[in-house]
Specification:
With about 130 residues, the protein is α+β, with helices and mostly antiparallel strands. The chain has helices spanning about 45-60, 85-95; strands spanning about 5, 20, 25-30, 70-75, 100-105, 115-125. A six-stranded mixed beta sheet has the order 1-2-3-6-4-5, covered by helices on one side. It is globular. The relative contact order is 0.24.
Length: about 130
């Protein structure tokens, strides 16, 4: 059994949980959405990546961890050319050893103007 984590952010309108926890495992999905009002944060890839990773940070902290607990990240971009800008901001949030990561370019994401979506998996309290 797993539990949905309340991050204190504006809840999603779709029938999904944005963050769930089962024991010390956490799964989450994030876009560049303002955590207060739920509006999409548009702009260049660095702006959207910073907000998306900020939302991941909020979620992991709400689940009882930190970004250092994130072990896997899946990044979905709508433009291959956005990878360098995304990587620049990503390096502001994650330090070595980096989480395992896959970056995929997709045709489009659900919301108009959305350039990035991130799925993350964390192991809380891992002392390996």
């Amino acid at each position: 059994m797993f539990e949905a984590i309340d991050t204190g952010s504006d809840p999603c309108d779709a029938p999904v949980s944005e963050v769930v926890r089962a024991g010390n495992l956490v799964w989450s999905v994030h876009i560049s959405e303002d955590p207060v009002n739920g509006d999409l944060v548009t702009g260049d890839i660095e702006t959207q990546t910073r907000r998306t990773l900020g939302n991941l940070d909020i979620a992991i902290r709400a689940a009882g961890g930190t970004l250092a607990d994130v072990v896997q990240v899946q990044v979905f971009l709508t433009e291959r050319s956005d990878a360098p800008g995304m990587n620049k901001v990503y390096a502001e949030f994650f330090k070595e050893p980096y989480p395992v990561r896959a970056t995929v370019v997709v045709k489009e994401l659900l919301a108009e103007g959305l350039r990035i979506e991130i799925l993350a998996h964390a192991v809380l309290g891992d002392s390996a």
